[in-house]
């Protein structure tokens, strides 16, 4: 059976609203109960306040939960030595790739300050997951498609598939037209019907399961895919096959760990 891989999760608290279960242990326990094998997280300290410190917190959680927690290292477009620091962290166990959050950092994804970070991702052979938000001046899917065009060796994942319902269809068409642009589907607005539409337009090989835990309960995100009207083959690609292909040797599962 193919692994179930949650491509978009978080751990930690968030200043703007209450997160009832911010800890990695809770997330691992729930995922074990419902059948999610591993989740890739960025620490919310890294997203919101201090990328360097938050990345270390995420790496510590991956060390505590090997094969159950993977890490998206948050890239800081303002720090001149960010690429050098991330280059060292990319060699740490459990790291999946880079995470961009242009809206929180208020730096457009096509800003030149991101270029050294994308070049690092290309050299390291890792994917990049970015927050995606239709009509945002920082992370519109059209701009993420341009980023993917500029860096054809880097798989670019559009977080939330663009977030807003009126942008999902456009995001799917952009993904279908750009070979290294993928759609990650977490978010309460992306319903089962929208998932079916994304698969129909972009192709099942371009859509990745994600939950946005701990912001959202992973049980809801998994149910969305389990109950979608997809073929077994397409469902397997969305739930983990595509992520496993993009992550390659960087994907470590608990079943692979030595007791």
Task: Record the SSE blueprint.
Elements: E1 5-11, H1 24-34, E2 38-43, H2 44-48, H3 51-64, E3 69-74, H4 82-89, E4 95-100, H5 102-105, H6 115-124, E5 128-131, H7 141-150, E6 156-159, H8 165-177, E7 181-184, H9 192-202, E8 207-208, H10 218-226, H11 232-247
Parallel strand pairs: 1-2, 2-3, 3-4, 4-5, 5-6, 6-7, 7-8
Helix pairs in contact: 4-6, 8-9
Text of the CATH class:
Alpha Beta
**CATH homologous superfamily title:** Metal-dependent hydrolases
Order of helices and strands: EHEHHEHEHHEHEHEHEHH
- Roughly how much helix do the residues carry, as a percent range? 40-55%
What is the gyration radius calculated from CA atoms?
16 Å
- Overall shape: it is globular
CATH topology: TIM Barrel
User: What is the number of strand segments?
Assistant: 8
Largest sheet descriptor? 8 strands, parallel
| Quaternary organisation of the protein chains | single chain
Reported CATH architecture = Alpha-Beta Barrel
Proportion of strand residues: 15-25%
Number of domains: 1
Q: What structural category characterises the helix and strand content?
A: alpha/beta
Describe the structure.
By secondary structure, the protein is of the alpha/beta class. The chain has one domain (5-256): Metal-dependent hydrolases (TIM Barrel, Alpha-Beta Barrel), CATH 3.20.20. Helices cover 43% and strands 15% of the residues. The chain has 11 helices and 8 strands. The chain has helices at 24-34, 44-48, 51-64, 82-89, 102-105, 115-124, 141-150, 165-177, 192-202, 218-226, 232-247, and strands spanning 5-11, 38-43, 69-74, 95-100, 128-131, 156-159, 181-184, 207-208. The protein has an 8-stranded parallel β-sheet with strand order 1-2-3-4-5-6-7-8, sandwiched between helices. Strand 3 (69-74), helix 4 and strand 4 (95-100) form a beta-alpha-beta unit. The radius of gyration is 16 Å and the shape is globular. The two termini are 21 Å apart. The relative contact order is 0.16. Keywords: Hydrolase, Lyase. InterPro entries: ACMSD, Amidohydro-rel, Metal_Hydrolase. This is Metal-dependent hydrolase. It comes from Jiangella rhizosphaerae.
């Amino acid at each position: 059976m193919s692994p179930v891989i949650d491509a978009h999760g978080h751990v930690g608290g968030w200043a703007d609203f209450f997160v009832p279960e911010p800890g990695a242990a809770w997330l691992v326990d729930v995922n074990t109960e419902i059948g999610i094998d591993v989740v890739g997280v960025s620490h919310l300290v890294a997203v919101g306040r201090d990328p360097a410190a938050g990345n270390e917190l995420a790496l510590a959680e991956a060390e505590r939960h090997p094969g159950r927690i993977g890490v998206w290292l948050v890239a800081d477009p303002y720090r001149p030595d960010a690429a050098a620091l991330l280059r060292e962290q990319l060699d740490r166990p459990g790291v999946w790739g880079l995470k961009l959050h242009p809206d929180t950092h208020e730096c457009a994804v096509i800003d030149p300050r991101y270029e050294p970070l994308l070049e690092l991702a290309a050299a390291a052979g890792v994917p990049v997951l970015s927050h995606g938000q239709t009509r945002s001046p920082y992370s519109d899917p059209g701009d993420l498609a341009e980023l993917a065009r500029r860096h054809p060796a880097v798989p670019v994942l559009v977080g939330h598939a663009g977030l807003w319902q009126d942008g999902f269809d456009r995001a799917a068409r952009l993904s279908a037209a750009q070979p290294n642009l993928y759609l990650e589907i977490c978010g309460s607005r992306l319903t089962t019907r929208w998932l079916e539409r994304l698969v129909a337009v972009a192709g099942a090989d371009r859509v990745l399961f994600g939950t946005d835990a701990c912001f959202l309960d992973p049980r809801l995100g998994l149910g969305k895919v389990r109950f979608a009207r997809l073929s077994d083959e397409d469902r397997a690609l969305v739930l983990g096959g595509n992520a496993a292909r993009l992550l390659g040797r960087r994907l470590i599962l608990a079943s692979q760990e030595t007791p």
